[in-house]
Amino acid sequence: MTQITLIPGDGIGPEITEAVKSIFSAANVPVTWEEENAGQTTFDSIGELIPASLITSLKKNRVALKGPITTPVGKGFKSINVQLRQMFDLYSNVRPAKTTKGVNTRFENVDLVLFRENTEGLYSGLEVVDERLQIVDSISRVTRTGCEKIIRAAFEYADKHGRKKVTAVHKANILKSVGAMFLSIASEIAKEFPHIQYDDKIIDNMCMQLVAKPEQFDVVVTTNLFGDILSDLCAGLVGGLGVVAGANIGKEMAIFEAVHGSAPDIAGKGIANPTALLRSAIMMLHHIDLKDEANRIEAALETILGNKEECTGDLGGRASTMEFAQNIIAKL
Ligand code: NAI
Ligand code: MG
């Protein structure tokens, strides 16, 4: 049995978490859950956004599944997601985007995985404000080590999963120094993987290519800000945030999470779509080498997604969150 830290989160978080737990238990997945919450819920009950008991659990288990968290609005509340990523050096943000039969999209054969650097660049938190001159300097700090880690993660993933191509995305024509560093590291690492094709694209052209001909991309690797924007763009290519998985992976720890928010407008109604969290949980099973369980659950999910009536309302069906989960369980 592998113990996993489970962060149910806020809003629809607990509902979609219950759905995933019931599917895992029906599939006899050999994991146990250690539940530790964060966010608005723990802030209201014990005055802490990231309780010490959660940190302890994460350090012990080193693998977590996380629902969406509401970061209270207002000065002094730093994003919990950003804090967790920086606290545990979860430098790879991995976001697969694949078309699914039955889910309405403009494209048929998208199957790509985006690797976004998750801790550096414009998200380093280095801002200098000159109140008198009304000027803000937002410093983008990028390190050689940071580039190496994310680019290597992308190539190693491509290698392990039989992917054919890695595309590095940058703005080296304008951001000369960071672009040159990122590209030189990428071409060095590419030499270690001669069986994987390597190319690069400038970010603006990449956006155009992605919405025109997304089938041409396989594994994509980029820096933090470009990756943040591209990852949601890629989700849009395959049905939106309700159906895509996400993971934050470091050397010591990995947190798998639904990338949508806590959906306060539908929270408590039992109608949220659990697909994004379930797909993140399937990625987690691959991470802990439970491949058979991952494939079984994925096959059942794909079957249900191909049959609209058995899905939740956002996918055009009539099922509640738990009915959707039951439908998946019936196909296991
Ligand atoms: P949101 O993703 O929560 O909602 C946007 C729209 O998508 C809403 O209409 C919602 O009902 C719908 N939606 C989202 N997930 C769904 C699902 N699983 N099934 C069916 N419909 C779904 O984004 P919003 O409204 O901008 O943010 C709400 C809260 O979530 C904020 O407090 C924000 O800080 C937080 N948030 C947390 C994230 C995380 O923890 N990873 C990511 C994004 C937002
Ligand atoms: Mg984002």
From TrEMBL:
Keywords: Oxidoreductase
InterPro entries: IsoCit/isopropylmalate_DH_CS, IsoPropMal-DH-like_dom
Tagged with keyword Ligase: no
Ranges for domain Isopropylmalate dehydrogenase-like: 3-328
Presence of the UniProt keyword Oxidoreductase in the record: yes
Highest taxon of the lineage: Bacteria
A Pfam family reported for this protein in Swiss-Prot or TrEMBL: Iso_dh
Protein family (similarity comment): Belongs to the isocitrate and isopropylmalate dehydrogenases family.
Protein name per the record: Isocitrate/isopropylmalate dehydrogenase family protein
